[in-house]
Design brief:
Length: 121
């Protein structure tokens, strides 16, 4: 019966002695704790990536929205030869550089060392 379960991909019910035999992660040989830490690291990477992506979307589409609906405000001069729109466009570019720097810094300081500690490449 156990061999039929194994072939069919059926896992034993919780609380059975056979569950201990399936303590590795889907045949990878990795203990469940390793998989949990790897999944937690992946969730953290996703969370950071989504937060930075949201920041880029807000910055970029905020600027595009201002171009579409607040042309008069963007046309105002800050100093002769420099309008609010040109300044805002330059700040969108600078913001994207800064957000990229934040991600690279986070990845170098936290993600990569944690992945190496888990035995990843």
């Amino acid at each position: 019966m156990a061999s039929r379960r194994k072939r069919a991909g059926v896992r034993p019910a919780a609380g059975t002695a056979a569950r201990a035999a399936h303590a590795t992660v889907r045949g990878s040989g990795e203990p469940p704790d390793h998989e949990q830490r790897l999944r937690a690291l992946a969730r953290e990477r996703t969370r950071v990536g989504l937060a930075l992506t949201a920041a880029v979307f807000v910055t970029y589409f905020g600027f595009i929205g201002a171009v579409a609906y607040a042309r008069e405000a963007l046309g105002a001069l800050v100093v002769p030869g420099l309008s609010v729109g040109i300044l805002a466009g330059a700040l969108v570019i600078v913001a994207s550089w800064l957000l990229t720097w934040v991600y690279v810094r986070w990845a170098n300081d936290r993600y990569d060392p944690a992945l190496r500690a888990l035995g990843g490449r």
